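With this grant's support, we have settled on a layout for protein records. One resulting record is reproduced below.
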Amino acid sequence: MGDKKSPTRPKRQSKPADDGYWDCSVCTFKNSAEAFKCLMCDVRKGTSTRQSQNRTFLPFFALH
């Protein structure tokens, strides 16, 4: 039998970041490539915008 070589596929690469940054899909803030969540709204990198995050904030006086 002969040498059977499987066809070589190009390696998959993640989408290159624009100048080392990524845009938040929720608030559009430009975060550094190293950030795993948005520095403005705390949404994780790659989060879909289909469902909004509900956050409940208590008034300051409710904490004391």
Summary: The two ends are 80 Å apart (CA to CA). The first strand starts at residue 21 and ends at 23. The mean pLDDT is 75.
